[in-house]
Amino acid sequence: MFPGEAAMGNLEMKAEANGKSGDGKGGPAQKSERIFDLTSPEWYLNRELSWLEFNRRVFHESEDERNPLLERVFFLSVIGSNLDEFFMKRIGGLKQQVGAELKLLSIDGRTPQQQIDESYEMVRDLLEQQQNLERELLVLLAKQDIRIVKYTTLDETQRQKMATYFRDNIYPLLTPQGMDPAHPFPFISNLSLNLLVATRHSDGDHVYLNRIKVPTTGTGIPRFIRVDPGKHLYVLFEDVIANNLETIFPGMVIESCELFRVTRNAITEQWPDQAVDLLSMIETALQDRKFAEIVRLEVDSTMTRPHRGMLASQLGIDSRKDVFTVDGIMAKRDLMEIVAIDKPELHFPPHQPLDHYKLSGDFPNIFHLIREEGPFLLQHPYESFSSSVERFLKEASTDPKVLVIKMTLYRTSANSQIIQYLLDAARNGKQVAVVVELMARFDESANIHWATYLEQAGIHVTYGVVGLKTHSKVIFVVRRDYNGLKRYAHIGTGNYHAGTARAYSDLGLLTCDPDIGNDLTEFFNFLTLGYAPARTYKKLLPSPRILKKTLLEYIKREIEHQGKGNAGLIQMKTNALTDQDIIAALYQASQAGVKIDLIVRDSCLLRPGIAGLSENIRVISLVGRFLEHARIYYFRNNGQEQYYIGSADIMKRNLDRRVEVIAPVESPALQAQLREILNLQLADRRGAWDMQANGSYLQRQPQSRDEQRSAQEMLIEKSEKRLAEARRMYKKQYSKKIAKRKNK
To answer: What's the first-to-final CA gap in the chain, in angstroms?
Structure first.
């Protein structure tokens, strides 16, 4: 767990001891006289524990009675999905370190085993709260005539109906597997639900153990099976199987039926720089992942101790540490099926993304619009992804003056319009180049599919730079305009994914800035060549090499301005802040008197509010209807303000081991929009949490009726007002044009 208040008191006492009294009489120490060892682990938090703390904040949303009921169920399911990923990625990686006997300590001085142990403590506490809340929500759902019930509570008619459904739709899909000398313990796939069934002959004492995999994926059968089409009455898939076992084991006595689930490590050792064929390597890695070591076993609360021990032994895990008891619905991420129930009164008010106010008219060509109106700032999901980003690519694919389209592709949707427009562009004779990141975690298989599909259509596909993951979000278009070749671009903070564009808060820049165009030419040459990193950029801040160096320079510059009597200000909105060098630089800036505002969604390893070290730093986290995903970087720069947006978080992996792009936003009008976002979010009292020095968070409480609305709600409202005003102005201008024509 994070250090408590007493521990933080010790930290602050230590800080005092490291410094000297300012006047020799016990007064406050002078900033310049305080000495902090910024390499010391005590000034940093643990990444794993910080991320779990973020999930406590998400969990609070499922507890919060201000949220509609099905939205509370949504947040409960998100926690389940997040914990699955945590075990696959984070615990899996830590267990590999333990297995390799690595002695490398984390930034906060913990060994890999210490991190696992303390993470488990937090996870078990979170699971207990989760299970208690699940019971509460099920009662509330029942009051709204949405019932998830045990099979045994159904009446006779309903049971007969379910028995028929089992025989017709489920039984043919099942493959029961015995476990004896002729049938060794079966392979258990990652995140699969399984029934451990104990049977015996009616006239014998020998107990047979059997496994039945619950076929919840690829069958078209939902996890929550609706009993009556006219009612929202559901039973769980596995419960239907468990209560019809006599069909599977005719003539046998069913001694027990117990549910379990395993989680496998998603971290497989692959070395891209040594691979002859990256595509083949990733395919091998995916195959390896299927058989990777198990890092978690979940069992239902009714499972006997001997059966728990047998499973743990067969699966090669520690029965004391790696087994988690679930008293309730296992695999809570499947609750998304319940969330999808069409009861508007139990959901947030419907939100339909609006057209960007400059794209709402009948202007026939988006490239003319960008050229004549200047750059656009897109705010998703408040503004439509389809009528802006997808429109940009769609028009590029058909515009006879467009010659070249290049883009990076990290994640996209299953039925992607983006892919279709790229194919259309190739068919229309455009030169199309796509950098597909094959190592996008959990999307590798989909990206292999898209890469192969695009290649077969004649599109030039590359997989980025060896040893670096391409995480940037860029579309680059070269068009022959009336005055020669002109370059247009979209640079974003989010993936080219229509689904996440409606659920995540992201930003995008549409521009034809010539310097950015030059920079992107260099950038894509770097990506498609795979080497020559020593390229020069006028405006873009790509990583690796340039972004981190520049951020450190800008932080140092704010310190210099502060030293000259010019108030320094740094504001960063990012998903995570874990890079030690950047954190240390921010500490130094705070010590110099620079004010620092940090909006960090999840993991933050910086400790704010420590006297003499970080009292000028405040950190908030926003949790709400939309997942905060945008990145904004602001530096006051003695009045010459600088704003940047882009794909990079302040993490070592993003700054040193990924290809990212951060772009300047220079238009005063667009800077004003970013300022509005930052101000609204920093002032939020509905969805904001203030971080404490010990790593815990305190939720802000609204003080007035106006403060009951979140920043996200206000941004929805502001997008509506911008569009309404744009339409009003367009109508006014159109009326004037008509009037002129009539007077002629």
So the answer is: 79
- Nearest-angstrom CA–CA distance, 136 and 637: 51
CATH 3.30.1840.10 in the chain is located at 152-346
168-207: pLDDT as tens digits:
999 999 999 998 777 789 999 999 999 999 999 998 899 9
Give, for 479, the enclosing helix (H) or strand (E): strand 474-481
Residue 663 Cα distances to 373, 391, 437, 492, 643, angstroms? 19, 21, 21, 9, 8
- Under 8 Å between Cβ of 689 and 621: yes
Q: Answer whether the bond into residue 544 is a cis peptide, omega within 30°.
A: yes
- Antiparallel, parallel or unpaired: β 402-409 and 431-436: parallel
Q: What contacts 119, CB < 8 A, 6 or more positions away?
A: 48, 49, 52, 86, 90, 91, 94
Residue 230 in tokens? 């006219």
What are the pLDDT digits (tens) for 690-711? Answer: 999 999 999 999 988 888 999 9
Amino acid of residue 554: Y
- Parts of the chain belonging to CATH 3.30.870.10: 366-539, 542-719
Tokens of residue 613, six digits: 């070290």
Percent of the chain at pLDDT > 90 equals 76
| Domain 366-539 architecture | 2-Layer Sandwich (3.30)
CA proximity to 571, closest of 629, 647, 654, 644: 644
pTM of the entire predicted model: 0.90
Residues involved in catalysis? 471
Integer Cα distance of 580 and 371 in angstroms: 41
Architecture of domain 542-719: 2-Layer Sandwich (3.30)
CB atoms within 10 A of CB 141: 21
Query: Which of 190-199, 333-342, 351-360 is predicted least confidently?
Result: 351-360
Mean pLDDT to the nearest integer, 511-516: 98
Cα(16)–Cα(8) distance, rounded to whole angstroms? 12
Nearest of 325, 340, 330 to residue 134 by alpha carbon: 330
Q: What are the angstrom distances between the C-alpha of 235 and each of 71, 132, 211, 261, 598?
A: 21, 20, 21, 19, 45
- Tell me which CATH homologous superfamily contains domain 152-346: Polyphosphate kinase middle domain (3.30.1840.10)
CA gap 558, 638 in Å, rounded: 8
Q: Degrees (nearest 5) of the Cα angle 142, 146, 148?
A: 85
